[in-house]
Amino acid sequence: MKKNYLLLLPFTITVLQAQNSQLYYSGKFLTPKDKTQNFLKIHNKNSGIYELTDEEGFAIIAAKPYDTLVWNQGKNTHVISTYELRELKVILESQTGNKNVENIYSKTYDSLVSKEIKDDFSIEKTKTRLSKRSHSYFDQIRRLKQRNDSVYIVKRLNRKTLLFNGSFTTSLDIKNRNAIPGTQSKYVQGRSENGSLVWKGPETNEMFSFGPDISTLGFNGLPYEYDQNGKLIPWVDGLQRAQKYDNNIFKTTVGYNNQLNVNAFIKDGYNEKIRLSLNLGQQKNQMYFIDQFDIANSFKAKLNTELSGYSINLAFNYEEDKATNTNRIGLFNKAYQNSLLTPVSFSNEQHTFLNNGFQRSYSKYADNPLFLFEQESKYSYQNRERWFSLNIIKDWDHLKLNISQSYESNNIWNFDQYKPSAYGFSNGVLNERTQNSSSYHSNILGSYTLGDYNFKNIFSLNFILNDKKSDVYNSFINQKYLYQRTSQDHIFNYNMDIRDYDFEAGLNLGNSFYISNTSLKNNYWLPKANFYVKFNNIFDWYNYSFKVLGSYTQLSSEPEITRSYASYATTLLNAKNYNQYFPVQEVESFRGLSNINTREWKVGTRFNFGYNVSLEGEYFNRKNINDIFPVFENNQLKLKNIADHTYSGYEFSFTYDRLRLGYDIFTTHKVSFFKYKDIVDRISPGYQNLAVSGFKDIYKTLTEGQVLGAVMGSYFERNADGQLIIDESGFPKKAEGMKIIADPPPDFVMKFTHSFAYKNFSLDINWEWKKGGQLWNGTQAVLDYYGRSSESGEDRNIKNYVFQGVQANGTGNQIPVDFYDPNLNVQENRWSRYGYLGVAENYIQKADYIRISNISLSSSFPINYGKQNLKLTFYVNNLMLWQASKGADPNQNFYDMDNGRGLDFFNLPSFKTFGCIVSLKF
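User: That's the sequence. What structure does it adopt?
Assistant: Structure tokens below.
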């Protein structure tokens, strides 16, 4: 056959710049409370792309087998299996009904154009006929209906039935913390005096653990309210030896999750007429801290029916979440920090309060973690969400109309408090924060389809209206913030698909308007262009294919008005004043800002070698213009359009699918390689080196020409040859000012996925290797400063050490030093001489790690001849973590901030989870 489609190929590639990727994943994505939400951001960690859900939580995103999808700010992930991916046109076709046009016959017309038939009563020659929509089985005929003068419809006698089904799923998980920094358990609270090491009790408010060896001390046995065993004195025969106290605040915890889903539906024959679905859920998430947990309850109802050709869907969700505490004020970080800094000679568990009613801690400049968790009411956080939606769909042959309406209200209550005698708030402090939000969403989508399977064209118009309101009240400052935004999206889209034997091509063109009352300027030109070209069975090899794809997209967006930027208050404090962190200031307004305009393009290829092997690669480049960041100006928290930055990178992956190892054993393996950079291209005047997150004296910064979030901190002074300058005391000299000292992005990330299937058993293993990248380990710096780190415990007796470097006059250093000389002030030792954070450059560490992310084993057991099914799954997350840094998991964020990765200041450790899921379908 002559393949005329080759003439279309140059035209297609010339006119267009790009199309959606090779394969797509489609489905519903839910909030952390299993609720559908429009504009929920779905991020593909492997490719870097993201998409937004519609009002029903539905989204289509370009993906590859075993890619990892992340949403809800990383709280939810999903590893995509091969069978879950489809071509874009298949997904779109599944959303659009197809109908055939029938021939029309009329007796009147036939009588005018045909000869008269003599045998008018012959059954063979009758002009009346049955419609194609007639029922096939005549023993089930209910009635005969005349459609027109020559066509009759036979209607069947349907049996209406009421059916029930559902499922019950329960899971149990056991959590335990991962690695934390090592601390010394040899030297007690105290310091040197007159050349001797002296224990100093809590009443002295001593913060340092540079006292004597605990093995040389004993309890005097006299009453002492800081220790039930008495004060510490030099040990002599007859005294009770001093005791090493463990101040660990972590424990192994157990949580659960129960979900009951019941469906009731009425069938008219084989057609489902109406369906009612109810879902009840309860989850208890037990943290690894003592007595800290949250409980979530949910109720969901859905009603689906068809009425006069209209498909109608109603949904209602109610969710309630309560927690003993949240980390909004850094409470968990503060408790964790104090537990690590507590000297080995002091026990936090013995008592929480002193006789005077103040907290019992090892110093008035520190807190007892148990005191921080002390509270009168059981819960200090509550969140209630209500959501209602209506969706109507009508399909007329080539035309389809979809109308969706939804309303959501959300009420959040926080009660943040530090009791009197808390460090930083001696008189106590409390803030009751309430946030009430409401959102109305309207989506009208119309599409028209022309053509058939081989050449299909779809035109669509989409109108989206969002009206959001939010008010935030903080009792501490007695101030209420009001926010409101009404935005419109008008989207035109044209999609074309071509199929001809071994050739496929597709293109997508569109433009959208973004109009908002909070935007400084509306945007009416947001084009997109996508293309793909695929050659199947190349060289006449069956299922060997080659695909080229690309895309260009422009987007306009604004910051979400329900997001709080109060945590940016850390940038007003030095790290030593962390105890004063108590965020109550919110952003003044979301108005008067330019949109964040994004221009993204990508190109990629995919090779399929038979049914089992595939190789693909993609390069992407995303330019963000006028990106918005928080700043403090005139003691007010504001948002500003500050920087342009470009996020770019590439990804390659290799997949071997369904490799057969035996008669019933199959395995799938995938390896992906991912590399990216996010470079700051432009900074608005006056904002160079702006802090993005962190403290005033150590932070992630916006600096032109550098990666976004490069770490800025103190450093050692060096000469032109890079040699350390040694001061007159024999120690390296700290330079004045700050500079960029670390680059957080990794050199690359590799992910590995292995799946094994044997009969009804399946085993999945996911692990990853991150190479390169740096982080600042401030946890180590503070532990060193106070003498609590394992390094300061092991090395404090090093003497006559000579640092490599040169003196100020250029001569090589020959001055020997003792790391801890009892004859000198404690703050002149190796670790305390440079101040609270030491020299930040000295605490830059590699962020490499190897992690076994997930291992799961599952099996299904049919019950009652397959009418019911029982599925068991055993899993473990974060089973193994090797890391180059000495601290918490490198993936943990500074004070739980999304942009805080790369700073470790008592970041909470990650946890490993062992769990079991039992699911019964009935």
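The first strand starts at residue 24 and ends at 28.
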